[in-house]
Task: inverse folding
């Protein structure tokens, strides 16, 4: 099992930190590069559209998974 890596950033003017497995961070970094966004901008856009009942870390994991699923479907 991978150790969690914590990253800190500002969302809506507030500092927060999120701990995820390195594999999820790698996919999120790729997503930001693909969209030509900064990492902070990507997380802010995902945060703005997530269900308030879903924790940010969970929303980021789901976004990474969905990105990979779309990539697989596009290559089929």
Result:
């Amino acid at each position: 099992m991978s150790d969690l890596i914590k990253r800190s950033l500002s969302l809506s003017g507030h500092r927060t930190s999120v701990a995820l497995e390195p594999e999820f961070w790698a996919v999120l970094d790729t997503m930001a590069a693909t969209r030509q966004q900064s990492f902070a901008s990507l997380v802010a856009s995902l945060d703005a559209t997530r269900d308030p009942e879903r924790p940010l870390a969970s929303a980021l994991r789901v976004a990474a998974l969905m990105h990979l699923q779309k990539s697989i479907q596009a290559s089929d």
Observations:
- Residues 2 and 21 are 6 Å apart (CA to CA).
